[in-house]
């Protein structure tokens, strides 16, 4: 049962669920989602490894960052795969939240969906779940599966975030290595959390 955008904005005042929302989302949100903007784009330039106990994620190279480049345009050729990060930062509470007067408190979990402009342009968004306790910007994969170029501009609304209450208990809140928006281990081996 997704929470409406207005409910999320109401809860945002108390729990700071999303930091840095743009004016449109704060003043005139649409439906149940709030839209997040792309702030950083990186390409993968190294190998990666995922083992039972150890792993390393690939070295990456930032090709565009809104903090340095402003509203720069980036073109994806067919077959390009980028890692894209949000401008906004998520602060998903690690404790249960009272989200409705007549319902019990629950953990909240944000889910990410693409804006339809992506798949209409042949581009696939590769999101993952975000667990209670995660704090930081979000990073997703973006793959141009179409046969044509796709150009995007830093600062554009690209991702839809929808919060849903979690039924039941969790063993522990998120404590993984990607906390605070870390994108990669830059090829350095590490123990899995």
Question: Topology of this structure?
Answer:
Blueprint: H1 5-15, E1 18-19, H2 23-27, E2 34-44, E3 49-50, E4 54-56, E5 60-65, H3 66-69, E6 73-76, E7 81-86, E8 89-91, E9 107-114, H4 116-120, E10 123-126, E11 135-136, E12 139-144, E13 150-153, E14 157-166, E15 190-191
Antiparallel strand pairs: 1-8, 2-5, 2-7, 2-14, 3-4, 4-15, 6-13, 7-12, 8-11, 9-14, 10-12
**The number of domains:** 1
Helix content: 10-25%
Determine the CATH superfamily: Deoxyuridine triphosphatase (dUTPase)
Largest sheet properties: 7 strands, antiparallel
Q: Based on the structure, what is the oligomeric state of the protein chains? A: single chain
CATH class: Mainly Beta
Radius of gyration using CA atoms only: 17 Å
List low-confidence stretches. Answer: none
Query: Any idea of the CATH topology?
Result: Deoxyuridine 5'-Triphosphate Nucleotidohydrolase, Chain A
| Beta-strand percentage range | 35-45%
Alpha-beta classification: mainly beta
Tertiary shape: globular
CATH architecture: Distorted Sandwich
Q: What is the CA-CA span between the terminal residues?
A: 30 Å
Mean pLDDT: 91
Order of helices and strands: HEHEEEEHEEEEHEEEEEE
């Amino acid at each position: 049962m997704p929470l409406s955008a207005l409910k999320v904005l109401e809860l945002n005042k108390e729990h700071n669920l999303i930091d840095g929302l743009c004016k449109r989302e704060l003043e005139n949100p649409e439906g149940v989602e709030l839209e997040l903007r792309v702030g950083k784009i990186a390409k993968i330039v190294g190998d990666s490894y995922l083992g039972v106990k150890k792993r390393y994620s690939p070295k990456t190279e930032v090709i565009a960052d809104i903090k340095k480049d402003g509203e720069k345009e980036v073109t994806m050729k067919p077959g390009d795969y980028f890692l894209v990060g949000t401008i906004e930062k998520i602060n998903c509470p690690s404790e249960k939240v009272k989200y409705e007067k007549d319902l019990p408190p629950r953990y909240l979990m944000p889910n990410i969906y693409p804006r339809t402009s992506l798949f209409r342009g042949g581009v696939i968004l590769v999101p993952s779940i975000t667990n209670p306790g995660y704090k930081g910007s979000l990073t997703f994969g973006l793959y141009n599966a179409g046969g044509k170029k796709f150009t995007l501009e830093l600062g554009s609304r690209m991702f839809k975030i929808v919060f849903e209450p979690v039924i039941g208990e969790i063993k522990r809140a998120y404590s993984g290595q990607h906390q605070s928006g870390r994108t990669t281990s830059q090829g350095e081996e590490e123990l899995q959390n």
